[in-house]
Amino acid sequence: MYISEHIRYAGVNDLKIDLFEGQYAVPHGMSYHSYVLRDGQSVVFDTVDAAFSEEWLTNVADALDGASPDYLVVQHMEPDHSGSLAAFLSQYPQTVVVANAKTFTMMANFFPSLALEGRKHVVANGDTLSVGTHVLHFIFAPMVHWPEVMVTYEETEKVLFSADAFGKFGAAGTDEPWVEEARRYYIGIVGKYGMQVQALLRAVAQFDIRMICPLHGEVLSGDLSEYLRLYQTWSSYQPETDGTIIAYTSVYGHTRQAVAYLETRLRESGCPCVVYDLARCDMSRAVADAFRYSSLVLATTTYNADIFPPMRQFIEHLTARNYQKRKVGLIENGSWAPTAAKVMREMLSGAKDLVWIEPTVRILSSLKDDDLHSIQELAQALA
After folding, report:
1. Which residue, of 186, 202, 235, is where some domain finishes?
2. How far apart are CA 96 and CA 149, in angstroms?
3. Are 175 and 280 a contacting pair, CB within 8 Å?
């Protein structure tokens, strides 16, 4: 991967991983990025997962092309980015580690036997470091998505080394649109911290950014306005697309029939919609689309005086990520004491700026003509 004459790529691809962070399916693998800046002094940005230390150290040596690394900038201590730290410092014992105070505290927890006396350069928010013709600016980005995170702007080539911000699922070089996997990555991993992402966007707005080098996904260059617009939309919890996501569970098929009828009515009215069977789908994709679309319909059965477990899990994923500013409709089913709508509404009671769409559809066991009429009314209210 070519970055520039002075900035070399040194990252790795993980093509064997099936679940990132133990929960996100990554059928196209995952990338762990690292970069080398060569100038009067050489700088390595971040390490990689410990499973790839040997491959990464070879890549770093190739990028250095005989030079010795003067600095290792540690922007994020999550193990997929710091796992090779000890191996690197063993191979390059004279390298100075550049990080903030909180990062060094975490470093001692992850690597208690690591001796860094005389090899620490502690930076504060807004500090700079000149390494020749290139000047690094360090900007703190707490909770994007760990508390120690910082990003680095290089002013000569106008590159933002963005840590986990602007990352995506998938190995580097994967032939797929950026936005789908970047949205799923953002909502799943960073989504709770919209306010902190907004603060980062404001902090880096002072810089003329021509390229973004994240720790996962693709290096972004050219016209960056669409990437920045999407991050502004996602972090402010605004809908990205007008349309409806229908998320449902169904035990014996009756709730699924109701959802199919609603989907047909919405499509007939020209309303874009997507449908997820929560018991069978990739939950992270359903959650990402709930944040993408302007309206959400939840349809489920009453189960043990509560709601069907995949629906509970789905709503908990939404509320954990500060779901807000959407229209929400409900469909419940029950045979003797339906409580699903009440439970779902209570679970979302803390969500900000929701507009509840009426009518709430109540099905008693199976679909009847009155139910179809109520679903038609719900479709009209959503369209």
Report:
1. 235
2. 19
3. no
* pLDDT of amino acid 1: 85
Is residue 2 one of the residues assigned to a domain? no
Question: How far is it, in rounded angstroms, from Cα 187 to Cα 197?
Answer: 12
- Residue 223 shares a structural domain with residue 250: no
The CATH number of residue 277's host domain is: 3.40.50.360
Q: What is the pLDDT of residues 324-349, one digit of tens each?
A: 999 999 999 999 989 999 999 999 99
Burial of 55 (0-12, 13-18, 19+ CB in 10 A): middle
What is the spatial distance between Cα 354 and Cα 273, in angstroms, rounded to a whole number? 19
Structural domain that includes position 168? 7-235
For residues 133 and 107, membership in a common domain is answered with yes
Write out the two tokens for 143: 């909770």
Whether residue 204 lies inside any domain: the answer is yes
Q: What is the pTM of this model?
A: 0.95
The residue-averaged pLDDT of 113-140 equals 96
Number of H helices, E strands in the chain: 12, 23
- The answer to whether residues 281 and 212 belong to one domain is no
Contact 348, 312 (CB under 8 A): no
